[in-house]
Amino acid sequence: MSRDSPQKVFSVGDMHGDFGHFQLILSGLGLATFEGNEVRWTGGDSILVSTGDTVDRGEHARSIYLAFQELARQAPEFGGEVVNLAGNHELMNLQGDLRYVHRSEYDAKGEYGGREQRENEWSRSGLIGADIRQRYLAAAVRGGILFVHGGLEPATLSLYGSGPEAIDAMNQKVKELFDADTVAFNHKLFGQRGPFWNRFFADHPESQICGHVDETLQIANAQRMVVGHTPQEDGVGTKCMGPNGPKFILGDTVISRAYERSFGFTRPSAIEYDGDSVTAIYFSENAESPRRVSLTGSDGNRSEF
User: Fold this and answer.
1) Helix pair 61-74, 19-29: axis angle to 10 deg
2) What is the pLDDT of residues 127-152, one digit of tens each?
3) Domain containing 268: what range?
4) Burial per residue of 281-304, b for 16 or more beta-carbon CB atoms within 10 angstroms, e otherwise
5) Which long-range contacts (C-beta less than 8 Å, at least 24 apart) are formed by 231-236?
6) The pLDDT of residue 4
7) pLDDT at 2 over 60
8) Alpha-carbon span 225 to 146, nearest angstrom
9) Which of 33, 141, 166, 264 could crosslink 161 through cysteines, CB 3.0-4.6 Å?
10) Are 188 and 194 in contact, with CB atoms under 8 Å apart?
11) Which DSSP helix (H) or strand (E) runs through 278?
12) 144-199 pLDDT tens trace
């Protein structure tokens, strides 16, 4: 398919069971409409990437998972795509670590209809468990952007190749590891420096991380790395500024209201990638239109418009 302009890409961070904010964001982006239990893709040939952690903390993750499934089915009919990455909380649920599951998910009146039904749906052949095991990725490159939940270090990626094929090889290994009734803990990819749990880039200063960012991007043939996982209290975070803007972007802005008690606020957001332009988009239920902040000003400064 030929295009006169680059395919627009959007990413959303950790939803953690907040279906209301999920609807607010996707509707505000023009990617989907919601009517009752039905969701319809309206994003044309756009690409939507979820960087993971749909589950845990909040109580309506099931609705989000099912909406993602339906949008992933519909989008290709219009030349679009929905890409879902697994986060550390998807991984934890596949491993049987359920300490952050909202108690309502075990309630007979909850979305799943009870504990047994939830276990069935998260099983290897279940409605949600099978989809995560078969369709979800550890990392993806779309529009020249590398998306991963926590962060991807060059030492990890280089284990799977010396070029862009390393992403596919790593995803294939993760799929093999996911193909179990209960996913094991003892693999390097599932450790603290693996793509699901990594906070090296988020927690360390630019002087320590930017060289590693450059190495990873070179292997992946990408110009930026975008992650979720680590909440950013001041909005979408940026590090490692280059001639085309930030090379490292943190997109978890405390989106879920499940975090409101801990942080004292919530900030639903998404990020838009349109060629070399990157824009943080913030949503409010009380505002007619979202607030847009450019992250790729020519002087390296953010500008609101």
Assistant:
1) 30
2) 999 999 999 999 999 999 999 999 99
3) 9-304
4) bbbeeeeeebeebbbbeeeeebee
5) 231/14, 231/259, 231/263, 233/263, 235/267, 235/269, 235/280, 235/282, 235/293, 236/269, 236/271, 236/280, 236/293, 236/295
6) 60
7) no
8) 5
9) 166
10) yes
11) strand 277-282
12) 999 999 999 999 999 999 999 999 999 999 999 999 999 999 999 999 999 999 99
At residue 304, the pLDDT reads 76
Say which residue the tokens 């909040």 belong to: 58
Indicate whether 122 belongs to any domain.
Answer: yes
Which among 214, 208, 252 is positioned nearest to 233, based on CA atoms? 252
Is 4 a member of any domain?
no
Q: Does residue 229 come out as left (phi exceeding 0), alpha (psi in the -120 to 50 range) or beta?
A: left
Cα–Cα dist 50/64, whole Å: 11
Give 302 or 246, the one with higher predicted confidence. Answer: 246
Does residue 1 belong to any structural domain of this protein? no
Q: How many domains does the chain have?
A: 1
Spatial distance between the Cα atoms of 133 and 273, rounded to a whole number of angstroms: 28
- Has residue 108 got a pLDDT over 60? yes
**Residue 91 maps to a domain:** yes
Question: Locate tokens 């003892």: which residue?
Answer: 186
The CATH number of the domain holding residue 253 is 3.60.21.10
Give how far Cα 196 sits from Cα of 63, 103, 221, 277, Å: 23, 24, 21, 27
Residues 272 and 10 sit within 8 Å (Cβ to Cβ)? yes
User: Token pair 């986060």 is at which residue?
Assistant: 87
Report the interhelical angle of 206-220 vs 165-178 (nearest 10°): 90
Only one residue has tokens 């978890």, namely 252
Question: Does the reported pTM lie above 0.85?
Answer: yes
